[in-house]
Amino acid sequence: MARKKIALIGGGQIGGVLAQLIAIRQLGDVVLFDIVEGLPQGKSLDIVEASRVDGFDVSIKGTNDYKDLDGSDLVIITAGLPRKPGMSRDDLLTVNAKIMKSVAENVKQYAENAIVIVISNPLDAMVTLFQKVSGFPSHRVIGQAGVLDSSRFATFISWELGVSVKDVNAMVLGGHGDTMVPIVRYANVNGIPVMELLERKYKDAAKAKEVMAAMVKRTKMAGGEVVELLKTGSAFYSPASSAIAMAEAILYDEKRIMPTCAFLQGEFGVNGYYVGVPTILGAKGVENVIEFSLDDEEQAALDNSVNAVKGLVADMERLGF
Ligand code: APR
To answer: What is the pTM for the complete model shown?
Structure first.
């Protein structure tokens, strides 16, 4: 079987980690594209020179020429400017929309059959814009947000309960902003509800709720927490790992259920917008959206998050995108 070709658009912090993870896992040959001359070439050379040590054997090519995307099976986009301290994801809208538009035009021209994972922020708007400009079928254009947000939620739960994070299942839906919706009711440790474990730990239902509320809040603000600490740039290891999990589900046709930013056509009462929901990821991209019933509180939180996404998309349209 021919090796897959994976194009990374954006050779910055996330792009570099993506390239290294793809190489180490031998997921395919990599083309690392950036507009900055020398940057993708230098990172590619640096990564590939570890191939003897790490024991991988794939090609990694750095480029400033979109022609090198030709025939890519998968494209992962991180092009754009990252958030700076004090800057909201929405502030990035204008500058990153301009970048995303040109990226979409070029991916359409050179990699028309690719499945596309968008990471650039503000995520919900960027994935919407990519699909609109490229005209790709919506199941082939997917946003990465929920896998990371859910992993952050699971991490905090595992610390709180003192259990391995491997046994924690927790899902975050909605937009990739402060309105995201961690689903508390179904958060569990090997099937045991997290709320029950918290109540047993604290022997006090009110205290358990308070502890969960703090974890929910931290999850929603987790991107900003990293930004404040780093001071220059935003999270990059965990977004890269999250996109790689999605890439593996697609490349290996795993049919994994992952929360991704997917185009909804009536599911969860949403029509015509990209929103974070549980999806089945396989060789075709988003192969299905998994619906489940939400209680009133969850539905209200999701509606609120969807409204934020709609506002973002409306802003982008008003700005001419
Ligand atoms: N085409 C391709 N690459 C571009 C373009 C463009 N038109 N414009 C900018 N870039 C490149 C930059 O040169 C830079 O190398 O995108 C790269 C972005 O890398 P970083 O600034 O290091 O940002 P990173 O941390 O990788 O985050 C990328 O993902 O999580 C989001 O908010 C984050 O939107 C940001 C994106």
So the answer is: 0.97
